[in-house]
């Protein structure tokens, strides 16, 4: 091996020893062994020969020559050893060649003679073979033709079936060709062509049947409206029939039918019941089913074809996918659907038609659509329908349209419920639609109430005859024994708007009741709905209209008083409204969960608002008269009579309070009500007048007041006190009304009498003569008079004649300031 090779150094020059010569000889032998080995690389060996050795090339060539000569001698010895045997073999071969040539000539001659002798036999034999081959070919041909003819006949039959569009039979023929006939003759080219054409024909059949399916889908999309209309009409007729049946059953003149089929009712003995009129029979006969309106054969044919082709799943997926797309299109409403009931009806018809078709497909086919698929479609559709109805119903502001929408939803729900679809969510939606219906009713009745209030004259209703009285009483539950005893003509305390409002509330209850029909709700639930909607009408709509009416500027004090009387009568009529609802629903008002009407609080609030408005308008009128005051605050002495503006104000108050006293008081409630309002209004007016006069004296813009102005002001206050003492409104005890001016009276007495010593001495005592005089008020007024004295007005005589008087004023001012400072600290 290369790893075991020993690379010896080249030998030294000729004078080397015997041992060195042997070593050199051995080294060269190793080199030659490596060179003679063709598997080993020569580069390493040659490098070892020439590395660092003088005369290495010469010695190597010498040794190489000696090696060659040695090999030549060995080759020569080997050739000499085998030469004699080679010569002997050549000699024997030359002897055999002559015999072989002789034998070849004999064989050739024998073959020639044999060919000449058998030439005729060969010709006859070939003729026999050719005849035998022809016979075999003819038999084979007949046999193969017998196999091919049925194939060709079947293929011809296939072509005829395709031309006549009998695709399902054509597929069966293809199946026979593939499994029975073609395998028998599959080796023929025409059969191979047939076999290659069959998949193409199947694809054509699939495409044709799919085209028919697409036409069918387009057809049912167009006919869904008609199918849905028919189904909903059937449901509506069935609903009407059931209502009539229930009515007859309640009267005891009806035998319950066993079943109903195609709009015709069958009795237990199998006879058809005769309808009341021939028109109803004609209507029943004219009703068409989904099968009458839609040709379902393309679906059946396509389903069978894809089933035979083993591609039923693809067909089912395609059908369901397309129906889902159509469902989304059907569920998409028109933008203006909410404007008319026809828009809603068309929308519902399309949806019903869609699901009626799906229900028929579900029951007429096996597995094309499943109950799970139709339920999924219905749940998706139901969510979309509810969202659409919520949106579009919110745009409706006509209660009649909302009511018609409700009826459509009920028929729509009943129709689909008859086909097994759950519709509970639709009936839940009706509660939301009911709220929308109530909102539209409230808006409509708000306009009605507003119009009634605008047309009312706010005067008691005059009644001239018994008929007129009965007419009013028939419209409004009014009972008063004293008024009934009076002779005609007479007046009823309320105005014309009261019976009109009461009638309209009853009309609202009827309108609200219409929505509750056909909702499959109990009487208790209907009663609760009616009461709640009526409460909304009273507490929100009517209350808002009353509040707006009261705030209108053209409504005067007389009208406000009449409004108070009207609200009292309406409040008393609330119990009759409750009885009215009870009579409609037959639900006892003692039921635990019965909702009460909130009309009492509504009319009480309106009455309080009217009373407050009376007080406000009176005060505003007083302010208008006060603004006409034109005092000459620097006058030396008074005119000796009260101011003109104040006398006008007092006359206005007298005439105003006479309105209260002239109200009809033949009813104790009315009398107490009007008396209480009059007393409160009178007290409020006197207090407001007193406060306004006090503010006039203490006005910061008023810098100086003379004693003459104080005297003139005192005359005006005296007139106010005389008015209060004249009992403008009956019912006040003692001098209660005069106490409204007590602050002004004590203040003016203090300045008129100039009784400062008594005021300062008794200040803070409960028995003080000037108990209601505030030190700050007295100081402010005294400061205004002090400034006047400096300008030689009312105190000019005091300064000239009695200097001590001026010092007294200054002393009083100081003491009042100390009292004011003491109060503030």
Automatic annotation (TrEMBL):
Domain Exocyst complex component EXOC6/Sec15 N-terminal residues, every copy: 63-232
Keyword hit for Transport: yes
Name the UniProt record assigns to this protein: Exocyst complex component
Family: Belongs to the SEC15 family.
Pfam families hit by this protein: EXOC6_Sec15_N (PF20651), Sec15_C (PF04091)
InterPro entries: EXOC6/Sec15, EXOC6/Sec15_C, EXOC6/Sec15_C_dom1, EXOC6_Sec15_N, EXOC6PINT-1/Sec15/Tip20_C_dom2
PANTHER family the record matches: EXOCYST COMPLEX COMPONENT 6, SEC15
Span list, region Disordered: 1-22
Exocyst complex subunit EXOC6/Sec15 C-terminal domain sequence ranges: 426-784
Gene Ontology biological process terms from the UniProt entry: Golgi to plasma membrane transport; intracellular protein transport; vesicle tethering involved in exocytosis
Gene3D superfamilies (UniProt xref): Dsl1p vesicle tethering complex, Tip20p subunit, domain D, Exocyst complex subunit Sec15 C-terminal domain, N-terminal subdomain
Functional note: Component of the exocyst complex involved in the docking of exocytic vesicles with fusion sites on the plasma membrane.
Keywords of this entry: Exocytosis, Transport
GO cellular component terms, A-Z: exocyst; plasma membrane
Domain of life: Eukaryota
């Amino acid at each position: 091996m290369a790893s075991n090779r020993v690379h010896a150094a080249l030998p030294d020059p000729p004078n080397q020893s015997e041992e060195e010569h042997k070593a050199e000889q051995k080294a060269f032998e190793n080199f030659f062994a490596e060179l003679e080995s063709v598997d080993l690389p020569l580069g390493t060996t040659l490098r070892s020969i020439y590395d660092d050795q003088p005369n290495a090339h010469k010695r190597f060539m010498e040794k190489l020559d000696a090696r060659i000569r040695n090999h030549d001698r060995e080759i020569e010895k080997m050739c000499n050893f085998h030469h004699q045997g080679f010569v002997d073999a050549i000699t024997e071969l030359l002897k055999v060649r002559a015999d072989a040539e002789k034998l070849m000539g004999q064989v050739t001659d024998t073959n020639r003679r044999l060919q000449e002798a058998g030439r005729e036999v060969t010709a006859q034999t070939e003729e026999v073979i050719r005849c035998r081959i022809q016979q075999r070919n003819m038999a084979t041909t007949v046999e193969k033709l017998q196999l091919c003819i049925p194939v060709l006949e079947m293929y011809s039959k296939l072509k005829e079936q395709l031309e006549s569009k009998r695709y399902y039979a054509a597929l069966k023929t293809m199946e026979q060709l593939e499994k029975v006939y073609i395998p028998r003759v599959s080796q023929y080219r025409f059969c191979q062509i047939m076999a290659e054409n069959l998949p193409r024909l199947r694809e054509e059949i699939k495409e044709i049947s799919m085209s028919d399916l697409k036409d069918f889908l387009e057809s049912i999309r167009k006919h869904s409206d008609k199918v849905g209309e028919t189904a909903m009409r059937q449901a509506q007729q069935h609903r009407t029939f059931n209502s009539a049946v229930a009515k007859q059953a309640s009267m005891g003149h009806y035998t319950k039918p066993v079943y109903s089929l195609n709009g015709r009712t069958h009795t237990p003995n199998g006879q058809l019941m005769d309808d009341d009129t021939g028109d109803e029979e004609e209507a029943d006969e004219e009703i068409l089913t989904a099968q009458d309106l839609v040709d379902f054969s393309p679906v059946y044919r396509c389903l069978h074809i894809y089933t035979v082709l083993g591609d039923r799943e693809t067909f089912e997926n395609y059908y369901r996918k397309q129906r889902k797309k159509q469902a989304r299109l059907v569920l998409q409403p028109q933008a203006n659907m909410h404007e008319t009931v026809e828009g809603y009806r068309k929308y519902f018809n399309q949806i019903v038609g869609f699901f009626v078709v799906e229900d028929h497909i579900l029951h007429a086919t096996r597995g094309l659509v499943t109950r799970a698929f139709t339920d999924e479609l219905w749940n998706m559709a139901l969510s979309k329908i509810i969202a659409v109805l919520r949106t579009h119903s919110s745009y409706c502001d006509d209660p009649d349209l909302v009511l018609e929408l409700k009826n459509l939803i009920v028929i729509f729900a009943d129709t689909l419920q008859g086909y097994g679809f759950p519709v509970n969510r639709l009936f839940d939606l009706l509660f939301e639609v009911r709220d929308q219906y109530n909102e539209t009713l409230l808006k409509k009745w708000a306009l009605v109430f507003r119009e009634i209030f605008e047309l009312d004259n706010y005067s008691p209703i005059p009644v001239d005859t018994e008929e007129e009285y009965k007419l009013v009483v028939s419209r409004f539950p009014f009972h008063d024994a004293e008024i009934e005893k009076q002779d005609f003509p007479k007046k009823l305390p309320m105005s014309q708007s009261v019976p009109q409002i009461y009638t309209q509330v009853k009309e609202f209850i009827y309108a609200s009741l219409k929505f509750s029909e056909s909702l499959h709700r109990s009487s208790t639930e209907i009663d609760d709905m009616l009461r709640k909607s009526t409460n909304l009408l009273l507490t929100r709509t009517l209350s808002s209209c009353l509040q707006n009416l009261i705030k209108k500027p053209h409504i005067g004090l007389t009208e406000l008083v009449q409004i108070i009387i009207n609200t009292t009568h309406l409040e008393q009529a609330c119990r009759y409204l409750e009885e009215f609802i009870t009579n409609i629903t037959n639900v006892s008002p003692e039921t635990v969960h019965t909702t009460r009407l909130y009309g009492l609080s509504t009319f009480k609030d309106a009455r309080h608002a009217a009373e407050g408005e009376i007080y406000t308008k009176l005060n505003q009128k007083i302010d208008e008269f006060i603004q006409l005051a034109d005092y000459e605050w620097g006058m030396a002495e008074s005119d000796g009579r009260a101011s003109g503006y104040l006398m006008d104000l007092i006359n206005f108050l007298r005439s105003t309070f006479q309105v209260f006293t002239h109200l009809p008081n033949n009813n104790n409630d009315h009398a107490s009500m009007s008396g209480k309002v009059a007393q409160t209004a009178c007290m409020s007016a006197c207090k407001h007048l007193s406060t306004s006069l006090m503010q006039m004296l203490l006005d910061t813009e008023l810098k100086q007041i003379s004693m003459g102005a104080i005297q003139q002001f005192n005359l005006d206050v005296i007139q106010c006190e005389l008015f209060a003492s004249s009992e403008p409104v009956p019912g006040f005890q003692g001098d209660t009304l005069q106490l409204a001016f007590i602050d002004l009276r004590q203040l003016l007495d203090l300045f008129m009498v100039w009784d400062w010593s008594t005021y300062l001495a008794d200040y803070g005592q409960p028995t003080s003569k000037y108990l209601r005089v505030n030190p700050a008020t007295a100081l402010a007024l005294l400061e205004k008079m002090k400034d006047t004295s400096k300008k030689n007005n009312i105190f000019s005589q005091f300064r000239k004649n009695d200097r001590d008087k001026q010092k007294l004023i200054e002393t009083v001012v100081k003491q009042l300031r100390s009292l004011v400072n003491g109060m503030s600290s």
